[in-house]
Amino acid sequence: MSEYDDTCTVHDTWSGPICSFDGNNKPGGTTSNGDGSRDAVGGVTDKTKIVVVSTKEYSGTYMSMCTTNLSVHEGFKNAMYQDSEGNITVGIGHLIVNLTAALALPFTRTHTTHGHGDDEDTEVSASDKDITTAFNAIKANPKAWTLAHLTNKAVIETCIKDVQTTEAGLRGLYSDYDSFPDGVKTALVDMGFNLGIGKLKSAFPAFNAAVNKKDWATAAKESHRTKISESRNTDTANQLLSAVKK
Questions:
Q1: What is the pLDDT of residues 206-219, one digit of tens each?
Q2: What is the CA radius of gyration of the chain?
Q3: Model pTM greater than 0.90?
Q4: What are the tens digits of pLDDT across the range 143-161?
Q5: Is-contact 37 29, C-beta < 8 A?
Q6: CB within 8 A of 74, min separation 6: which ones?
Q7: How many CA atoms lie within 13 A of 212 on its CB side?
Q8: Helices (H) and strands (E) in the chain, counts
Q9: First-to-last C-alpha distance (Å) of the chain
Q10: Shortest CA distance to 98 belongs to which of 87, 82, 113, 86?
């Protein structure tokens, strides 16, 4: 096990890498913990299972399912990048609509202290200039290398907030949303996050009708999206079908 701090650890297990996140423990500041530990940057990929501890706001089991599923299909990127449509994005598919939005995120940069024979890297808050430079660089050149990045912890925290925002919209579409099985909610979050609540509402009437009837088999058939991978469509369908009583 490689431990980076008490809120975001990465474990190598027989079933593959696992990234553990405890949202109950949120120390002050952004990256310098003051106890010799530091927030991790890198080491997490779309093949890493994210394990989230329960809080008063959410179930850890369910949030683990949502964040891992989104990471599998959106990727896990610490630095800003352009998505397939040229939008500036970071973390687990988090859209950065403009520079103001970028400046609101807890970007950091790595500071190296040169000691007697040993160099020590710590994460320090990125300045507005650092973030602006990174944003403009990626906007101009998607292959640009930048100093500003999010720690693994910040990526997961941002994704959890995105899940919660998506859920708020889903509750407006499905009155019984909170009583749905976790697998179904994971599928709905994926669709709402990927499409946007507005498009999900307008472009998938048959799907929405099936969901509100709790007809999961029909919902699975109607969940197919274009412009995404078939593996993502298959995962969504299987998550919905997991609620079908056998």
A1: 999 999 999 999 99
A2: 19
A3: no
A4: 999 999 999 999 999 999 9
A5: no
A6: 46, 92, 93, 193
A7: 13
A8: 9, 9
A9: 40
A10: 87
